[in-house]
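Mods, move this if it's the wrong board.
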Amino acid sequence: MIIGLPIKKFTEAYTRLNNVISLDERVHLSKALLENIVNCFNQSNNDIYLITKDEEAIEFAEELEVFSYSSSHEGLNSEIKEFFDAIVSTNSPWCIIHSDLPYINKFNAKQVEEEIKRNDFLASRSEDNGTPIFGGTKSIDKFHYGKDSFSKFKKEIEEIGNELHIIFSRELNFEIDTEENYKQFIDNLPNWYKESRT
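Not the wrong board. Structure tokens:
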């Protein structure tokens, strides 16, 4: 399976948490979350790509022993579309994953892989109607990340006469997007993150 993880500059990650954690803590959080996701999906024969133009993130991809992809386009949706067209083969399983999913583990990562192979399109839905996980075995003409992305993906897939299989799992839809999300995360730290802080 081809997995794409869109990554912005580590120093620009989680700016909405500026009031609660320092820049160094935000960079550490960003790298730790990314490393956990890579570790969870690296158990199978997956090709994992960090979709980024940032030099530090490209170097981090090398440390994690995964690929990086730098788009010539600007804007998240255009960058992901270029990655998709360049890397994903017709009818190959693929998945785009947000890098801020703290409760993903090897067990539910394996479930995602199996579900993707069985469905044309699959997604999880965050509390703000975002799309932390989106994948499948069929191609899509346009990506819709941003406000209400889940509804936009669902509408486009229905318009082409297909169905979006939805994953209902807290581990696969909880993102650290707000100060409240971060507080919930701190109150329920996963073991992998506790270990990353020692």
